[in-house]
Design a protein that fits this description.
heterotrimer; A mainly alpha; B alpha/beta; C mainly alpha; A: mainly alpha; 6 helices; B: alpha/beta; six-stranded mixed β-sheet; four-stranded antiparallel β-sheet; disordered N terminus
Chain lengths: 208, 267, 311
């Protein structure tokens, strides 16, 4: 029963996962930019536009489901969480694009060690989101929430490290600002990933 | 006697003030077929209680135990307790006609008598001893007003009720039920034969009427239950599977079978 | 407000042959198309012709009888036929006419209440699975199928020989009542069964008892059907001869009391024509009898319509 409806719900889940994969790709790109100092702003823009496109597609599908299938209970939870989740997923590529732009202009700046770690942690969080969206696993969603504490801790560490480097005159002010901005954006990426995890929990009708 | 495993799934209020209807361990048989199995339910005053479930699940049968309309059916036997304001309606001293005066009923198919609009409404009050013309006139007008159909029918009081549209007939039947001044209104799929506009009117009317009446409505239309009711009960194979606030039942049903039914994945 | 003439004109105006845009209507086949259709289904054509012929034959027979009776009887309709007292000169039919009214009216007065009450009991107070009901219904059906002469013999033995010692109106009335009782009961039962249960439910749900439900809701709804049954019964009484000859007798006068003998119109016709001397007067009487039946049918139709229209 309700074959079309079930197919549409599966489709929503599949599209959410695809969108999150795009986010993860953008994260991998900016991580490469941080390590190898190459310019990734163009490919990250591609990711950003792909995410925008997906966002609209998912919203349209969800509206259609609401209008034509009148979902209730868990079905409604899934659809509403999808509508909310796409905003967070879309913001992640926005942040990645901003980071790509900053790094493009800061190729000569020294990179604080903890920023590399933070980048890896944030990228991993987004990748975990993609995995969690595949199965809608509650456990996976809960680990993402814990991982955000690590990212937040690393942000404090980056700030401290940068302050030290400026004091030692190892880094000029402009570079320090760029690195701090990068760290701040990464911290936001972590928050968005947590939001995605929370919507996954909500979609299953559980208290978060 | 309430079995503990049922208590978990069924909304039962513990307050001191009794509910309008208190149903306990109600069984009903048609011949040897058991149509209701140990139903427990508290129906609150001034609320709309919706009963949902697939065809043949016993929801209409349950509704008819509340005004003893099942008594007409040969071979129908009821055991258990149904209390109306604390008094057992199946007790020996209960006057069934007075019970049905207090508990009005509206049927699935509009069933006006083949008589004028006026006579349809006046039939009930006359049955219960109202004779004065002026008093009957007042009752007819106020009942039709309550059922939000006075403006449509005030110039056609002497016309046949069978000439009205389906939606008008159903609201006439609601007015007819209100004319005997009941405190409970039972509605057995009152809109299943009506178009969406008439359905909307009846739903709005039910919302309006719950200020003064207790309403129990059986419906096949889950959106309707979700739209208008305060409590929702889900019946399946004669059992009350889940009973609780409509918000909870439709947001996060506790029983898998309820979820399957309201999301349309039953069976 | 339109005038009556305008309304009539509107009602009988020919329907337009094309729509407002001047296009022909496409869902009404032309005669040629119909014939082409029948060519492909010759059996349909045969059946259509047969059913049309049957209707025609029925109408023709009725018309033929009526015209024949009128042609034979009308020239013989003389004022003397309607004199109050019968004698061998005027051959008046009036005593028989009054006797007919008395016997028909009185027998209905007895049979209708009993028959309707019995039908109410069978439909409203017993379940259809009841054995007793099955027996009563079978008995009624059997009674309805018995030839009227059997009722006549029965009436003669019970009422004429044992109870009233001689032919009398009352014996005729009682025999007729017994004869039409099953008819009234069966038709009333059918009419009551045709009343939808939703009416009864609606009444019960308002707190009305059984008696009130039956008399205020069910009976009024069944009234057209019941009246139709009563008309049938009336027709049988008015047209009855055999059973009445053996019970109410052939005296050509209105008796002083119900215990005296008197004949009905149908018997009057029979005696006039069987003697062979007054066949012309028998034809004239036939006109009156047919008119009586027509008037009764018309009146019943009127009453029945009145009930139907009100609801």
């Amino acid at each position: 029963m309700r074959k079309l409806f079930d197919e549409q719900l599966l489709q929503v889940r599949g599209m959410l996962k695809e969108m999150c994969e795009v986010d993860a790709e953008a994260m991998r790109l900016i991580e490469r930019a941080l390590i190898s100092r190459e310019d990734v702003s163009a490919p990250v823009r591609v990711c950003e536009r792909a995410a925008d496109e997906k966002e609209r597609e998912i919203e349209r599908l969800c509206m259609r489901i609401i209008v034509r299938q009148q979902p209730v209970a868990h079905d409604l939870a899934l659809v509403t969480s999808a509508v909310k989740m796409v905003t967070d997923l879309e913001r992640i590529t926005d942040q990645a694009a901003d980071i790509a732009d900053i790094l493009k202009g800061a190729v000569s700046c020294a990179v604080p060690k903890s920023l590399g770690a933070m980048m890896a942690a944030a990228r991993e969080m987004v990748e975990r989101c993609a995995a969690a969206l595949d199965t809608f696993s509650l456990d996976e969603a809960r680990t993402i929430r814990r991982a955000d504490d690590v990212v937040d801790g690393l942000f404090v560490a980056v700030r401290r490290e940068l302050a030290g480097m400026v004091d030692e005159k190892d880094e000029d002010g402009e570079c320090a600002m760029d690195m701090l901005m990068t760290a701040k954006y990464l911290e936001r990426v972590g928050d968005h990933a947590v939001n995605v995890a929370e919507w996954i929990v909500f979609a299953q009708g559980k208290e978060s | 006697m309430i079995r503990p495993e049922l208590r978990q799934n069924v909304y039962i209020r513990g307050d001191a003030e009794p509910p309008k209807f208190r149903v306990r361990d109600l069984d009903l048989f048609y011949g040897t077929f058991q149509a209701l199995k140990s139903v427990d339910m508290d129906i609150e005053k001034n609320e709309i209680t919706a009963l949902i479930g697939p065809s043949g699940c016993g929801k209409s049968t349950f509704l008819k135990t509340l005004d003893r309309m099942n008594d007409i059916i040969p071979g129908c036997r009821v055991s258990g307790r149904v209390e109306l304001d604390g008094a057992d309606i199946y007790a020996g001293g209960m006057d069934v006609n007075l019970l049905r005066k207090r508990v009005g009923m509206v049927f699935q198919k509009p069933n006006p008598f083949p008589a004028s609009v006026y006579d349809n409404i006046a039939y009930g009050p006359k049955t219960h001893g109202v004779r004065k013309k002026s008093e009957l006139d007042d009752i007819v007008e106020s009942s039709l007003r309550r059922a939000a159909i006075w403006d449509e029918l005030k110039d056609r009081l002497k016309k046949s009720a069978l000439g009205l549209s389906g939606g008008q007939q159903q609201r006439l039947c609601i007015a007819r039920a209100l004319a005997v001044k009941p405190d409970v209104l039972l509605m057995d799929e009152p809109t299943s034969a009506l178009d969406p506009i008439s359905t909307g009117k009846i739903e709005e009317l039910a919302q309006e009427l719950k200020k003064d009446y207790t309403i129990v409505i059986v419906t096949h239309n889950m959106q309707q239950a979700a739209r208008i009711s305060d409590k929702t009960g889900f019946f399946l194979l004669g059992e009350l599977i889940e009973f609780g606030g409509t918000d909870e039942v439709f947001d996060s049903p506790r029983d898998k079978r309820t979820e399957d039914y309201i999301t349309g994945r039953f069976g | 407000m339109k005038s009556a003439a305008a309304l009539l004109k509107q009602k009988f105006a020919p329907l337009p042959s094309c729509d407002l845009k001047g296009r022909p209507f496409v869902n009404k086949p032309s005669l040629r198309k119909k014939l082409a259709e029948y060519k492909r289904h010759p059996f349909s054509l045969v059946m259509m012709v047969l059913v049309m012929l049957s209707a025609l034959v029925t109408a023709a027979i009725v018309l033929w009888i009526v015209i024949h009776v009128i042609m034979q009887g009308a020239p013989n309709l003389k004022a003397s036929l309607f004199e109050l007292e019968y004698d061998s000169e005027n051959l008046s039919l009036m005593p028989a006419f009054f006797n007919t009214l008395i016997i028909a009216g009185m027998s209905l007065l007895i049979a209708v209440p009993v028959g309707v009450a019995a039908a109410i009991f069978l439909t409203e107070y017993t379940s259809s699975a009841n054995k007793f009901v099955a027996v009563v219904r079978m008995a009624a059906e059997t009674l309805a199928g018995i030839p009227s002469i059997v009722y006549g013999i029965f009436g003669m033995i019970l009422f004429v020989e044992m109870l009233f010692k001689g032919f009398s109106l009352i014996a005729g009335i009682l025999t007729m009542a017994i004869m039409i009782l099953p008819l009234v009961m069966r038709t009333t039962e059918e009419a009551l069964r045709a009343v939808p249960d939703s009416f009864r439910e609606g009444s019960f749900a308002l707190g009305a008892g059984k008696l009130r439900t039956v008399f205020r809701v069910v009976l009024p709804s069944a009234m057209p059907g019941i009246i139709a049954g009563v008309i049938l019964a009336l027709g049988r009484v008015v047209g009855e001869t055999a059973a009445l000859i053996y019970t109410s007798g052939t005296v050509k006068a209105v008796p002083d009391s119900l215990f005296g003998s008197g004949e009905t119109l149908a018997i009057h016709m029979y005696t006039l024509s069987s003697e062979g001397l007054h066949v012309d007067e028998a034809w004239a009487t036939a006109i009156v009898l047919i008119l009586l039946v027509l008037v009764i049918n018309g009146a019943a139709e009127f009453i029945s319509n009145k009930f139907r229209k009100r609801y």
